[in-house]
């Protein structure tokens, strides 16, 4: 199966390889390298950050919702926000929907540099424009990954691997069990984000959320605009007179020839990318025609890629479920806290919200980062082990950053002790995370 790989040049050998540099992958690589491991971070785009820099401009999940918000994510994630604040490109604001807690909005172009600076300072090696094409797995262990580069296919070896691709690409290519979003429950929809400039903020601020929703419905009923979602939002940014949006809604999965395909399918994803931009033009037209403050506004940019909420979720040693989240369950091996509500962007006009008990959090066990039947792999980010409902809460980027840091620290401990990822000392892992500023209870 891997005979072709024997002819490939070995481009590097590392202690740990992290696949994907998003809000989970970059902290994973930083944590790993800070603990003395030779770490390689592989990213398919020409910059770091994944969704945090290519799609969005806001971190959710740092605080519990409600009148008395509590900070529940620290560590590397807090370092990131502090660096953004030092650059003057980060602000905290109420969540537009009023139920998801304080939002931390930033300038994504500056965040690219923050991620790059922190990874380089940690001693981590970085490979941009690298697409993982194959995984060499022998006797239950991943041995190497095949990466497409500008110079062709290259082989990178490591003792341990962290899949932070969001889509569980490394696990998928390695034959590791996962749930295909859309098979058991409807997969959450896709969103093309866009930003508008030259917005009159005083006029826009005078329009409350309920009125924006009413105007959306009125515009759709008029027949002038096709608006699949009728409760989307826009928010301020660190740039004066620029607003960012979460409005479009594109179908994320379909049945084809007796099987379910989602945004990991190249044809579906290609159609969705193009449809998303066309749909965005409808919302832009609506904003300019109906919403005070937007009459002289213009499109600044689309997201670099479409926003994907769920595709593949691995089956781990523990699978977080809806009852865990809504009951704010705590675990002995928890390595992350989450107080974010369930936020299900289903097909249709609205979004389903279900809150945790006021001021409480669910713990995310270390076991949700360990795929079943593996020895040297961890996952971090939205491909972690959870059911559809629990995932719609814990996929917030602050939780992904905390998961990434935990996975990086765990991989470093596994390498140090030459243990399988499931066998490390979890008390030591939690102690190490706490020492570095993580909030675990």
Which keywords apply here?
441 residues; alpha+beta; FAD/NAD(P)-binding domain; 2 domains; 12 helices; 22 strands; 30% helix; 23% strand; globular
Please describe what this structure looks like.
With 441 residues, the protein is α+β, with helices and mostly antiparallel strands. It folds into two domains: 3-183 and 310-435, 3-Layer(bba) Sandwich (FAD/NAD(P)-binding domain), CATH 3.50.50.60; 194-302, no CATH class. Helix content is 30%, strand content 23%. It has helices spanning 25-34, 51-54, 75-86, 108-122, 169-173, 201-205, 209-222, 266-290, 322-326, 388-394, 397-417, 426-435; strands spanning 10-19, 39-42, 58-59, 90-93, 103-106, 125-127, 131-138, 141-149, 152-163, 178-180, 194-197, 233-236, 243-246, 254-256, 259-261, 298-302, 312-314, 334-338, 342-344, 352-354, 362-365, 377-379. The strands form seven sheets. Strands 1, 2, 6, 7, 8, 9 and 22 form a seven-stranded mixed β-sheet that branches. A hairpin with a 6-residue loop joins β12 and β13 (243-246). α1 runs parallel beside α11 (397-417). The longest helix is centred in the middle third of the chain and has 25 residues, at 266-290. The radius of gyration is 21 Å and the shape is globular.
Radius of gyration (Å)? 21 Å
How many individual domains? 2
- Arithmetic mean pLDDT: 95
Based on Cα principal axes, name the global outline.
globular
- In percent, how much strand structure appears in the residues? 15-25%
